[in-house]
Amino acid sequence: MYKLMIAEDEEPIRRGLVYTIPWKKMDCCVVGEARNGMEGAQLIREKHPDIVLVDINMPVMDGLTMLRETRDCSYSAIILTGYSDFEYARQAIECRVTAYLLKPLCLEEIEDAVKRAKEARKIAEVYTSTLENRERLKEASPIRSYGKNGMETAVAAEMLAYIEQNYSRKILMQDLVSELHYSETFLNKRFKESTGITFNEYLNRYRIQRSLDLIAGGETNPSVLAECCGFGDYKYFNQVFRKYMGCSPREYAKAIQ
User: What predicted TM-score, i.e. pTM, was given to this entire model?
Assistant: First the structure.
């Protein structure tokens, strides 16, 4: 359930929003009420709401200032106001407001605004998750610098170089056996000892990293991504992508837009 906070100085309107809107039906619960922007900013930091409904014209601190003061917090904002002035709308956009609603409000408008706010939260969560997962991929050091002799590290380095040069096509361990003239058992053992992960695990991680680069460059077609990164089958690519990134390639592309 999404946590929702309301900042509105007019008590009848604030109470009406709290008690007459079917928030539970929208998968939301009200976690706080504020009479002005100062109280609102404090509640945002205390309650960590997912969605904030805020009036622009409030005493002590106005709604837009409240949003700017809490820009470092993660939430979706919905403006509630009696002003239709373009300047307010422009500032609301700068404050990353999801919806700008004019009073008097109707239930359908509120439901639509909340739906958009929830979608924005999902995208933000996907973005945060994908950044974290991408960092985890980067943190996996290809070669450990401790406890291995030169020959073992050299073999692993050659295997890594082979992946970098050939990741876009199908790679079998037998290809490396032919290329490096060592047994499959020897290569698998040396690679695992030098990197801490299996050859196939590293290959998949490397391919996903390259797919992230392609997506960042504008490519979003799963079939093209799968082909360019050596997966061939886009369904298998989606499966591996979700394993490492926690979302589908399309969701990742939408999150980084």
Answer: 0.54
